């Protein structure tokens, strides 16, 4: 009986730990953050941590997960999930004067469809540039070859 | 020797046999392997690839065979082929070298607007991506599965190894299986998407292409691809090197080796390595089966994309393009071009579309490489 009570107490105290640190859509939320915006698909918090501390927190929190990409942009560090988690990205700002703004965004079809459309257009752009390149080079070479043949015939 | 020792020895020997370690799921893979060997030999479906792939599937699905693992700190036979050929992405690039050495880009150079058909035919790749993500694949897996519709084996293998190597076996198998079935899949789609008047459109004879243009083409292409989609230069660079070797006319020995013995050697290693990745433990899940069914949809939508692109182009062109050759934008070279010829001749026996269809067919190779490059850039 005594042992059972100890076990129950231990479970009660460990439960918050076992539930894990706070998270939004499965993405870890940096501690000591003040919520600015929270909707079903977006969480924006302001934290006292510096940008580097925030990025270190996320590198540690996400280190065992696959398909996570860290990208360094000019004004933010962009953490992207390329797997099939509920969250799509975590943005850690660089330019805040005090503290750091962290934004977690839900995976959404707008991003997927948008990037696919852009890339499909990109394929057309690549082949269009190649088409123009071949058209121009073809005309130049044809003109040169024609000139050379005319010269040969004259000779 | 006591009887116990003898029994121990016999039992120990038995434990090292495949019979003792038998699992029922490998029987299914024997069936899969034998099916592809049958398709290769009896039906002559892409035999150069399906035969070694089928045999690779068969041989690797026996218990305790030392083929795809490590023993005494060194890799086993097929693991070596897989590691150095596929993990290092060498084999697809060398196969493209051989393909370039056997390809005449004349029809494409003579009519460069068919490049747009090759781009349009990648529609299925991007639509299938959406469907694949919906079902639960990760973004990288979705990209590697959707490139199957580009109907380009080496590009499929290159991209899959880059983004989702765990799907290499099913993706490669689906790509090569559907490439072999182009004559079955495409004609009904062509008939559905075109009317009789369109199928009878005659195209002007292609202009002649000078040797200088053919030599300049690989340089121009590789320069543009390197600037716009650098991630696929290993593939396209080797493709264009092979073509330059062919068109230069001064390295015939190298060209012969590239398109002959080298290509054959790489095909053997490719086939057996791909087959060897398909152990029952990896293959028998919902993902490979889904890949096979989705591959068919992917192919069909790519065919539709090519035909629709021609129809849109015809709105702006004075000399119309026969939309049948839009189906050849799927880069199953030269099968898709031959299918266009066959379907065209059913409606006009004197309408020879083969050389016109070769242009978009080759453009499809460049288009699917560009699409692969877009996906690699998405994740890099």
Outline of this structure?
Chain A is 48% helix and 26% strand.
Structure description:
The complex is a heterodimer of chains A (155) and B (380). Chain A has helices at 2-19, 51-61, 109-154, and strands at 23-24, 27-28, 33-38, 42-47, 68-72, 76-81, 87-93, 100-106. Chain A is an alpha+beta fold and 155 residues long. Chain A folds into two domains: 17-107, no CATH class; 109-155. In chain A, the strands form two sheets. In chain A, strands 3-4-8-7-6-5 form a six-stranded antiparallel β-sheet, with helices on one face. A two-stranded antiparallel sheet of chain A has the order 1-2. The longest helix of chain A is centred in the C-terminal third of the chain and has 46 residues, at 109-154. Chain A is elongated. Chain B is mainly α and 380 residues long. Chain B has one domain (73-379). Helices cover 71% and strands 1% of the residues of chain B. Chain B contains 20 helices and two strands. In chain B, a hairpin with a 2-residue loop joins β1 and β2 (74-75). In chain B, α8 (123-135) runs antiparallel to α18 (286-314) and α12 crosses α18 (286-314). The longest helix of chain B is centred in the C-terminal third of the chain and has 29 residues, at 286-314. The radius of gyration of chain B is 23 Å and the shape is elongated. Classes of the chains: A alpha+beta (155), B mainly alpha (380). The interface between A and B is large, with 31 and 41 residues.
For the largest beta sheet of chain B, what order do the strands appear in spatially? 1-2
Overall helicity of chain A: 40-55%
Radius of gyration of chain B: 23 Å
The number of distinct structural domains of chain B comes to: 1
Structural class of chain B: mainly alpha
Which regions of chain B contain 5 or more consecutive residues with pLDDT less than 50?
none
What count of helical segments of chain B does DSSP give? 20
The succession of helices and strands of chain A, N to C, reads HEEEEHEEEEH
Structural class of chain A: alpha+beta
Largest interface here, residues on each chain?
Answer: A-B, 31 and 41 residues
Number of strands of chain A: 8
């Amino acid at each position: 009986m005594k042992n059972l009570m100890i076990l129950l107490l231990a479970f009660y105290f460990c439960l918050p730990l076992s539930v894990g640190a706070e998270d939004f859509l499965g993405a870890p939320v940096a501690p000591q953050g003040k919520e600015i915006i929270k909707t079903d698909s977006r969480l924006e918090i302001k934290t006292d941590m510096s940008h580097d501390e925030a990025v270190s927190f996320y590198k540690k929190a996400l280190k065992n997960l696959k398909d996570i990409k860290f990208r360094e942009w000019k004004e933010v560090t962009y953490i992207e999930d390329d797997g099939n988690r509920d969250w799509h990205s975590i943005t850690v700002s660089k330019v805040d004067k005090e503290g750091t703004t962290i934004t977690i965004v839900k995976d959404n079809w707008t991003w997927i469809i948008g990037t696919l459309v852009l890339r499909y257009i990109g394929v057309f752009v690549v082949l269009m540039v190649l088409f123009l390149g071949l058209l121009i080079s073809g005309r130049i070479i044809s003109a040169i070859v024609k000139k050379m043949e005319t010269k040969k015939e004259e000779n | 020797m006591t009887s116990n020792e003898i029994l121990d020895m016999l039992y120990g020997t038995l434990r090292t046999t495949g019979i003792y370690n038998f699992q029922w799921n490998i029987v299914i893979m024997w069936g899969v392997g034998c099916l592809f060997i049958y398709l290769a030999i009896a039906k002559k479906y892409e035999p150069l690839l399906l035969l070694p792939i089928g045999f690779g599937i068969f041989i690797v699905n026996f218990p305790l065979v030392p083929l795809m693992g490590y023993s005494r700190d060194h890799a086993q036979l097929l693991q070596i082929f897989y590691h150095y050929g596929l993990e290092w992405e060498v084999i697809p690039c060398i196969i493209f070298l051989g393909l370039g050495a056997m390809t005449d880009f004349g029809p494409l150079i003579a009519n460069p607007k068919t490049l747009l058909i090759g781009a349009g035919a990648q529609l299925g790749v991007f639509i299938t991506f959406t469907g694949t993500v919906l079902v639960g694949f990760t973004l990288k897996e979705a990209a590697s599965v959707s490139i199957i519709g580009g109907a380009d084996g080496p590009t499929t293998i290159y991209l899959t190894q880059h983004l989702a190597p765990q799907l290499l076996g099913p993706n490669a198998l689906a790509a090569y299986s559907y490439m072999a079935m182009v004559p079955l899949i495409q004609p009904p789609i062509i008939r559905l998407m075109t009317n009789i008047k369109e199928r009878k459109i005659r195209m002007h004879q292609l202009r002649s292409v000078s040797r200088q243009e053919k030599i300049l083409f690989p340089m121009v292409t590789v320069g543009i691809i390197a600037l716009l989609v650098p991630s696929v230069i290993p593939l396209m660079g080797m493709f264009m090197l092979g073509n330059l070797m062919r068109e230069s006319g001064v390295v015939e020995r190298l060209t012969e080796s590239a398109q002959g013995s080298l290509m054959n050697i790489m095909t053997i290693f490719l086939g057996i390595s791909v087959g060897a990745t398909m152990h029952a433990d990896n293959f028998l899940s919902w993902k490979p089966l889904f890949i096979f069914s989705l591959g068919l949809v992917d192919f069909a939508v790519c065919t539709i994309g090519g035909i629709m692109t021609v129809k849109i182009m015809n709105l702006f062109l004075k000399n119309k393009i026969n939309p049948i050759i839009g189906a050849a934008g799927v880069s199953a070279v030269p099968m898709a071009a031959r299918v266009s010829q066959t379907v065209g001749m059913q409606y006009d026996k004197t309408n020879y579309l083969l050389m016109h269809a070769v242009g978009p067919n080759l453009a499809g190779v460049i288009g699917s490489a560009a699409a692969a490059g877009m996906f690699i850039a998405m994740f890099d």
